[in-house]
Write a structure and sequence with these properties.
124 residues; mainly alpha; 6 helices; elongated
Length: 124
């Protein structure tokens, strides 16, 4: 269950990053795109996919939430508050890494903030 939640948060983070980097014009600046330069460039090449990308990001967060509900039933009751604080915290960072109004990636906090949804399972 933890793996499913982790994959869902990772997917949401990556997709939201592509969406908001495209919306804010960051991907246009990246003229030397490669596998290590960040962003997939999918929305640059296919802007008509924006709605689908939002759907993928949102469904990924819903999957993480549903996984958390299931995990809640499988763990000791005393751990419930910790689990829910973690999932809310990490879901926030998965989107607000690049999304307004916080745009943490544009304030020097990007790599630190994205570490949370990518590595949340280390706390589990």
């Amino acid at each position: 269950m933890v793996l499913i939640i982790g994959i869902a948060l990772h997917a949401a983070t990556n997709v939201y990053n592509d969406i908001y980097d495209t919306i804010q014009g960051t991907d246009k600046v990246n003229v030397h795109r490669n596998e290590s330069s960040g962003g997939s460039g999918v929305l640059q090449d296919h802007p008509e996919l924006m709605g689908r990308m939002f759907a993928i990001a949102r469904v990924s967060l819903v999957i993480a939430l549903l996984g958390t509900l299931v995990l809640t039933l499988l763990i000791d009751r005393s751990l419930w508050p910790h689990l829910w604080i973690l999932i809310i915290f990490y879901a926030f960072f998965s989107k607000d890494y690049t999304a307004p109004p916080f745009k943490l990636a544009y304030r020097g906090l990007g790599e630190i903030s994205v570490w949370f949804p990518f590595c949340w399972w280390l706390d589990s």
